[in-house]
Amino acid sequence: MISSLRGAVLSVGLDHVVVDVGGVGFAVQATPSTLATLRRGEETTLATALVVREDSLTLFGFTDPDSRELFGLLQTVSGIGPRLALATLAVLDPDKLRAALAEGNITVLTQVPGIGRKGAERLIIELRDKVGETTATRGTAGQVRTQVAEALLGLGFPAKQAEPTVDAVLAEDATLGTSEVLRRALAVLGRKR
């Protein structure tokens, strides 16, 4: 798989860019916001995803790996192909998309041309748990959240109680370690029983 390209920008079109890598010009489909950052003759690096079909090999380019990850994740949903996934990222930036999926916000998702109410509901159902973390809880806090939530599930707490409790504890202080978050979450859950 081609996961990134680095080279000089040969040309920028309405929906693609051509990047010269070692004398070979790669046509890369991209969102308007990505294309707006590129200038002819300048060096660029793009995170890419290669989509293989019977009749084509298509490269899709992104300014960051997070967008590429969401692009792949969107395609796991029935009825969402690479074009619709790219359109989704063209309308919604990664943070806004994650928030809409986590909150179940159908109105935001239906802003994307090609996604109706049923498609938005399907996206929410299939991806809510996969992108539920917000920008503030990604990285170390995201790892702590996952570990503590799994520990609470292992102790017999239902996910509907465990995950919001962990999120509430991390919202108070995102710098806490796993053991402290677990201790505080258990104290909160103990009061609810």
TrEMBL record:
Residues 144-193 are annotated as: Domain III. Coiled coil: none annotated. It is found in: Cytoplasm. The keyword Cytoplasm applies. GO terms for biological process: DNA recombination; DNA repair. InterPro entries: DNA_helicase_Holl-junc_RuvA_I, Hlx-hairpin-Hlx_DNA-bd_motif, NA-bd_OB-fold, RuvA, RuvA_2-like, RuvA_C, RuvA_C_sf. Has three domains with a flexible linker between the domains II and III and assumes an 'L' shape. Domain III is highly mobile and contacts RuvB. Belongs to the RuvA family. Homotetramer. Forms an RuvA(8)-RuvB(12)-Holliday junction (HJ) complex. HJ DNA is sandwiched between 2 RuvA tetramers; dsDNA enters through RuvA and exits via RuvB. An RuvB hexamer assembles on each DNA strand where it exits the tetramer. Each RuvB hexamer is contacted by two RuvA subunits (via domain III) on 2 adjacent RuvB subunits; this complex drives branch migration. In the full resolvosome a probable DNA-RuvA(4)-RuvB(12)-RuvC(2) complex forms which resolves the HJ. This is Holliday junction branch migration complex subunit RuvA. It comes from Saccharothrix violaceirubra.
